[in-house]
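Lab notebook page, bench 4
Experiment: in silico fold of construct C2
Operator: M.H.
Input chain length: 184 residues
Purpose: comparison with the prior construct
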Amino acid sequence: MRVISGKFRGKKLFSPDENNVRPTTDRIKETLFNILYSKDVYYGKVLDLFSGSGALGIEALSRGAESAVFIDIDTRSVKLTRSNLQQVGATNYELYHNDYSSAAKKLAGRKFDVIFADPPYKLRIEPKIIDSIVENDLLEENGVLIIEHSTENKLHIDDKRFIIDERRCGNTVLTFLTYRRNDQ
């Protein structure tokens, strides 16, 4: 794993030793950030839920995000994220050892421009993640929530506050949800 672009470009990231973490591949990460670039997304403040290795939030910091908050419930993932943040020399971040729901409650009212959610595919908790983010008012107007999930898990999102764009990358789907506060 490596940082693809920006001020940390080319820096190698530590990979997880265990099989419990499925890092976003460089190919999917590059596709994800190319799509964000094409949508002219402002990185500003970033939230990386289920951070794993921290690769997505670190990529956003490398590309100019003002700050990033990393969340993971797994102790090994928190240590791995910390090691990778130190490896690239990042300074403008917060790192929490917590589950996504509790973290969302603690962060309630803080607005993020980009939220990455890459939960373990087998959990199928994507709708709960969306609900938690909306209930705790975490997305900025026109902010983007990106959920990485399996093609086997079809998301049915009826919330009219989101503009939805899905992109398939092999057996992975990147679902981009752009938030509009008012149902326009």
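Observations: The chain has a mean pLDDT of 92. The longest strand covers residues 139-150.
Next step: discuss at group meeting.
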